Amino acid sequence: MLVDYGIFGESDVESMRGFYRQFLRKLFDFPILSPPIIESSIPQTESLKMENHQIEIATIRHTTLNVNGINLHVAEKGDSGPLILFIHGFPEVWYSWRHQILDLASRGYRAVAPDLRGYGDSDSPASVTDYTCFHIVGDLIALIDAIVGVEEKVFVVAHDWGAIIAWYLCLYRPDRVRALVNMSVTFNRRSSKRKPMESLRALYGDDYYICRFQEPGEIEAEFAEIGTERIMTEFLSYRIPKPLMMPKGRGKDKGHPLDAPISLPPWLTQQDIDYYVSKFDKNGFTGPINYYRNLDRNWELNAPFTGAQVKVPTKFIVGDLDLTYHSFGAKQYIHSGEMKKDVPFLEEVVVMEGVGHFLQEEKPDEISNHIYEFIKNF
To answer: Which Pfam families does the entry mention (predicted)?
Structure first.
């Protein structure tokens, strides 16, 4: 719901702001900060724009569906029209798609973004083995069945780990996907000779973040010591175009003091960080990190799909400052034509100049337009 501030008095506006702050606090379960009374560095017009956007976010519906034996929290907007399934990555939740949900719903689509298992307000099974690619894709197929029916196709838009899951979804069940917009992580051609973790350790060493994630409980303990807010701020602000290294231990002797200030990028507010922190504080990092602990297991499970192609109309988007664009030989894979061999219906590749990993938040309008311009053709 949008408010035309021009037709209200100042006291009316402040009263309405107070009402919506209370509404947002109850809906999102995190504190909505009051506008500063003292002079603010944010121009008033920008402040009003941000507050209007939070009011729009409050119009997104939230439900919980029991699918595939677990409860999934789902954010949704749009009552009719073709369904777009948004799949988030790490360390994200449905909220990373807030801009695209509002935009695409306004263009006549039904936008649906679940918290994947282990994340946010969805269930977090205890076992590492409950987070294989088959489990996650099974959740999404059951979710699609529950929302639109067992024979319907949907559009899929995904990022980071969500992109990995989306590749699997299209590989296993192309009959359920009308078209795919995937971001950051390319299709990963399965090697029959070497497991993923063996390759990653050989390429980047034990300090590479995915290698650090493998021992259950170890990285969780380190994250707990550092604090969720610091971890989320560091991850969501990361824009270094090279592989992410996380040496054991933190402090000045490691060249990474914990008290070093971090400035939020302009596309993230403290409210955004607070929301992410509230959700990762709820269930912790174990569920999300268990996705990484199944890389070798997924490799084993996907033996029957060695050499299989993704035969779904696809658009791929990546930022030229994205760490994934500079890892795993991704740049060469994309531009040499090898990716086209594995994804024969790859119709567009977009490399966004000066954009980092969390591109749907950094450039929300551009990403929404990229999605719309592609899926409107199907």
So the answer is: Abhydrolase_1
Query: CB-based contacts of 19: which residues, under 8 Å, 6+ apart?
Result: none
Instruction: State the catalytic residue, choosing from 88, 99, 159, 357.
Output: 357
Distance CA 117, CA 88 (A): 11
Higher pLDDT, 192 or 197: 197
Catalytic residue among 121, 160, 272, 342: 160
Q: pTM to 2 decimals?
A: 0.86
Q: What is the CB-side half-sphere exposure of residue 183 using CA atoms within 13 A?
A: 29
pLDDT for 20 equals 43
Instruction: List, in order, residues 6 or more apart from 169 with CB less than 8 Å away.
Output: 137, 140, 141, 156, 176, 177
Distance CA 128, CA 121 (A): 19
pLDDT at 179: 98
Unique residue bearing structure tokens 């298992």: 117
Q: Which two tokens stand for residue 135?
A: 């489990």
Q: Which residues pair with 349 in a beta bridge?
A: 316
Active site residue 130: no
The one catalytic residue in 292, 325, 333, 342 is 292
The answer to whether 135 is a known catalytic residue is no
